[in-house]
Amino acid sequence: MKKTRRAPASRRSGASPKAAEAALPVTLLEVGERARPAAPPSAPSRRLDVFANPAPERDYVIQFVIPEFTCLCPLTGQPDYAQFTIDMIADGLCIELKSLKNYCWSYRDVGAFHERVTNEILDDIVRATRPRYARIVAKWNVRGGIWTNVVAEHRAKGWKPEARVELPDAR
Asked: pTM higher than 0.85, yes or no?
C-alpha cells in the first residue's frame, strides 16, 4: 500500500535546493514494493541510432558483447538465449549503445530461427552504418543437447584489412 506525505511546512518554506527538494511529495512503499517511473527510461525499438565516427581515417575495431540476447523458438515458443559478439570496423558511422540495447530487446518476444535472427541483425547494422567490416558471432545456449554457433560477416566492396602486426612477447 502506498502513502503520500509532504515534508513539514518549516522545511518547505526555504529557497535552497534542499528545501525545495523536501517540498516534493514523498512516496512511502511497503516492504518489497518499488515505485514505477511515470515514463519508462527505455523501451524495445527496431531503430538503430548512429553518430559520426570520431576517427574515420583509421581502421579500428568496435566490439559489442551482448550476453543476454533473447528471442523465442518459432516452433515451440520457448525462449532461446544467446551471447552475441559484434565486431565492426566503422566507416563514417558508429552505433549508439542505448539504441543497440533497445534494438536487441525488441527480439524478446519474436519467434526466429538462430540463423535468421543472426543474419537479420547483421543486415540491419550494415544498413544503418555501412561499415567497412562487421561480424556477428552468436553463441546460442544448449537446446536438446546441442549448442549452436552462428557466424555472419559483411565486408564493404573494395575494403581490404591492414596486415596484422605481430609483436614479440615482452617476457
From this structure: no
